[in-house]
Design goal:
Distance between the termini: 38 Å
Number of strands: 10
Number of helices: 9
Helix content: 25-40%
Structural class: alpha+beta
Strand content: 15-25%
Length: 272
């Protein structure tokens, strides 16, 4: 009921996936969700469910304790909890995630199949209006998760979950921890930090052949770039601010709700 209720909210990211893996994005209305067939596969998914339901947010330490124990170092990598409910046979197809994923079965049962090879996201089939899936998925292992069971899937490991029938509706909570590609981090750091302000001009020597860049010129320019990178990285406080801003950056912009914004401003004015 909570997932269905959130799927009707305009500022919540929700998706409905049918048997052909076609995707319809929310918000939905109650009649639309109430008319979902019981004898056909479908899956309803909510992103950022932990930001909407405090009870889910409270589960983070318990879930991550299974992997890291009392070490809370995972907290800054926390992404979101995706909640899903599905009819028998429902799922989103075989895929990979760039995050560490912890799959907690909340109710009902789901069979998870895993391929024990790392696969790049670029290998997924990408068609408009359809779930991104791996066209050549071969399961090496499979488990049926019961309520309370937890499965960890590392980044870029192909996996597929299919809801199984039973007395209870299949409900799964996916806890994701962001991972950071070192090259992407470097590119973002250069864009956000290194390109700001001014720097010393490169003192390239005057000489050589006009049609070529000499070895000495290459060395001078390379040394200048190396010095700029070294000096910028030496500022620990600046790099700390950069990383802190990056890991707390929301994945999606906040909803532009002028009515709510007005209510908030009125409440602040009254409190003042």
């Amino acid at each position: 009921d909570d997932v269905a209720g959130l799927a009707c909210e305009p500022d919540v990211a929700s998706r409905l996936v049918d048997a052909a893996l076609r995707v319809t994005t929310g918000p939905f209305d109650e009649d639309q969700l109430g008319a979902l067939p019981e004898d056909e596969p479908w899956s309803l998914l909510i992103n950022d469910a932990d930001r909407c339901l405090p009870a889910l947010s409270d589960l983070w330490p318990d879930v991550l304790h299974q992997m890291w124990g009392d070490d809370g170092g995972w907290r800054w990598r926390r992404d979101d909890v995706m909640a899903s409910v599905a009819s028998e046979g429902g799922g989103v197809g075989a895929h990979v995630d760039s995050s560490d994923v912890f799959l907690l079965q909340a109710s009902g049962r789901r069979r998870w199949s895993v391929q024990l090879d790392y696969v790049d996201e670029a290998m997924m089939k990408d068609e408009a209006g359809v779930c991104r899936t791996l066209p050549h998925f071969k399961a090496d292992a499979a488990w049926v998760l019961e309520p309370g069971d937890l499965l960890y899937v590392p980044p870029y490991i192909p996996h597929e979950g299919v809801a199984l029938g039973g007395a209870e509706v299949c409900s799964t909570l996916s806890f994701g921890l962001r991972t950071y590609d070192s090259k992407q981090l470097a590119a973002r750091w250069v864009e956000d930090e290194l390109l700001g302000g001014t720097a010393a001009l490169v003192a390239a020597p005057l000489g050589g052949d006009a049609a070529t860049v000499g070895v000495s010129d290459i060395n001078v320019v390379r040394d200048a770039v190396r010095a700029a990178l070294r000096d910028a990285l030496a500022d620990d406080a600046a790099f700390g601010r950069f990383l802190g801003a990056l890991v707390t950056e929301p994945r999606a912009p906040p909803a532009n709700d002028e009515e709510d914004d007005g209510c908030w401003r009125d409440a602040v004015a009254e409190a003042a």
